[in-house]
Design goal:
mainly alpha, about 70% helix, signal
């Protein structure tokens, strides 16, 4: 096991055992208490290792300090602390605000929980989604960079210039023809680059949207879990965290997808990522 993951394993084991013990003390039998402890341990492990991956700078082995799942729902420090991030584009800002709101809702659900096993699970989930929302803010910077790069440039005008230069090259001879052909190629390559950036921007935004929707779904799962335990027999009912874990896994998949798209921006020879995965229904639409 990687050395930096040992604290995560220890925390997961400790909190998983504590969750199982809490469930047993609450009246759940061994068959119910052990799965509850295992589920909490899994969520703690996921939150810790994903936080480590998201906050570790490329080429380093040590990430920023993050809050332990058992120590409270404190949000991790934003990247570039000490200076504000540039303002994201309006369409990206809308989704980033929704991501932050989803984190706040899940944290409130954690505060409302009166079941120790569920509280531990939601604490780990809050740590996860808080870091995920922070990563979304960082990835939105790529959208802003694309907008800055392409601002004031008309791809259609470039294509028109390319056709004009190609026509002039055909009508020229010798060195003049070679110069016109070189200009036409350069103009065409620039137009193609702008088109690729526009397509990558669309893909970034689509993936950002779907990931935020998954964050919102995770918050709704947390609300459902708290509500069910509030009206049920919390002493014997062990929380079923399957749906919540599914949403957190989907959030992780979205973040991985954004990583892939961002890498393609920095590597011109890298094949363009395929279409974004389908997003869940937006309850606000």
């Amino acid at each position: 096991m990687n050395g930096r993951h040992l604290p995560a394993a220890a925390a997961a084991t400790l909190l998983g055992s504590a969750g199982a013990a809490a469930a047993a003390l609450a009246g759940a039998g061994p068959a119910a208490a052990l799965p509850a402890g295992a589920a909490i341990g899994l969520l703690v492990w996921t939150a810790h290792t994903v936080t480590d991956r998201l906050t570790r700078r490329p080429g380093t082995e040590t990430g920023r300090p993050t809050a332990s799942a058992g120590s409270g729902p404190a949000r991790p420090a934003r990247q570039g602390s000490g200076s504000e991030r540039p303002e994201p584009p309006p369409d990206a800002r809308l989704w980033l605000e929704r991501a932050s709101a989803a984190v706040g809702r899940l944290d409130r659900h954690r505060s409302d929980s009166t079941t120790p096993t569920l509280t531990e699970a939601l604490t780990a989930a809050v740590a996860f989604v808080g870091t995920a929302a922070d990563e979304l803010h960082a990835r939105a910077e790529a959208v802003r960079v694309i907008d800055t790069t392409t601002a004031g440039t008309d791809p259609q005008a470039l294509r028109d210039d390319q056709r004009r230069l190609e026509k002039e090259a055909r009508a020229s001879q010798g060195a003049m023809r070679e110069a016109k052909e070189a200009s036409a190629r350069a103009t065409g390559e620039r137009a193609a680059s702008l088109q690729r950036l526009a397509e990558l921007r669309e893909l970034l935004m689509a993936t950002l949207e779907s990931t935020v929707l998954r964050l919102e779904a995770a918050a709704e799962r947390g609300s459902l879990l708290v509500s069910l335990h509030a009206v049920g027999d919390a002493a014997t009912d062990v929380p079923d965290l399957t749906s919540l874990e599914h949403e957190l896994e989907a959030v992780q998949a979205g973040l991985d997808r954004l990583d892939e798209i961002s890498r393609s921006l920095h590597d011109p020879g890298r094949p363009d990522p395929g279409p974004a995965a389908g997003k869940p229904h937006d309850p606000q639409e």
